[in-house]
Amino acid sequence: MHPTVAYDAHAYCCHVSLMQISGNRPVIPEHVPAELAEIIRACWAQKPEDRPTFTEVLVRLDSAMGVIGGPQATTLSGNTTSEWT
Q: Quick check: 61 and 76 in contact, CB under 8 A?
């Protein structure tokens, strides 16, 4: 059994908000593929107008799936990447 740890959600949210306001973002682990890391960074842009739309994120994820998953990867739209060529 794990010991009970007090969790202060308000303090955590304040901490995260202060980090975001100051421009800090979490570190993206090295094992995350470069294509996904680029999408993550774009979504974390400081100015909301610099962030991609949800549609743009889906298009970029679809494209990244082909790069990451290889020639027969299934994209988010359900197509295999070989169907695109």
A: yes
